[in-house]
Design a protein that fits this description.
- The protein is α/β, with parallel strands linked by helices and 304 residues long.
- The protein has two domains: 155 residues, Rossmann fold (3-Layer(aba) Sandwich), CATH 3.40.50.360; 129 residues, Alpha-Beta Plaits (2-Layer Sandwich), CATH 3.30.70.20.
- The chain is built from ten helices and seven strands.
- The strands form two sheets. It has a five-stranded parallel sheet, sandwiched between helices.
- The longest helix has 23 residues.
Amino acid sequence: MKTLIICFSQTGHTQRVAEEIRSGILEASDSCDLVALADVDQECLDDYDLVGLGCPVFYYKPPFHVSQFMEELPQLVGKQWFVFCSHGSVMGMTLIMMAEQLTRKGIDVIGDHDTYADGTLPFYPYPTVTTGHPDAQDLREAREFGAMIAKRSRAVSAGDRSGITTPRPVPDAWVPEEAVQFTPEFLKQIMPPLSIDEDRCTWCGACEDACPVEGIDIDAEPIEIQEPCIYCFHCVNVCPTAAIQADWALVVAAAPHNYARYIQALHNAAERGEFRWLVDPDSMNFDDPLYKQQLREIEDGESD
């Protein structure tokens, strides 16, 4: 069985999950390639018996460029795929939307897997409520999923479809509406625009290299940023001099309200046996979001 895993990962958590799924597949199969989303050759997808597609959750759904990738896929009628994701407090509609998009391409989605993971938005506190995930247990479960999905694929190929599962319904009533609401246009209205402080910028290129949609050009005059943008703010986190700046006041002010919902969702998930607390949810320091911590660390380094 020839298998391919396609993965988009920023902080490495989804990549670690993908690697464990691959290890599980290799326990039950003799072949499994793992490739970054940006390096996929769509013309070769039909060559595989099984394909997995994984990504982190952004705004309760797949990142915009991952959805675009699925939209641009050719028809792959009858091909077997599975979907997986890593997420913070709320997975939202991600796996449901991925399965729906792939099904419209004629793809047979035979399973799904999700994993809790650390969150690193610059305007939220850190550590956050899911810091510490994925841990050894999460990664073991990913590996077990890989072994299972390989066996399921062989069963489906032999005509036994009894093991196929679909993404579970969203338990949090407010999530589906917000997932639909958070379009690029809406996020552009509510998120503070980014700017580059050229007095701090060293033109190292870290932000440009990290942007998954090639939305930054440091050689342009003036420097281009957020053209386009998926509002991951990874460029802010990777900048070694804190040169990428924004007025985070409004989104920082909204953090306690948002976290109240996230924490309740996690308590509910824990009661269902779907989540394990590794951090005290009452320890969140909303006065010290990640961007302040990073700036402080940089300034302390400059003063040494």
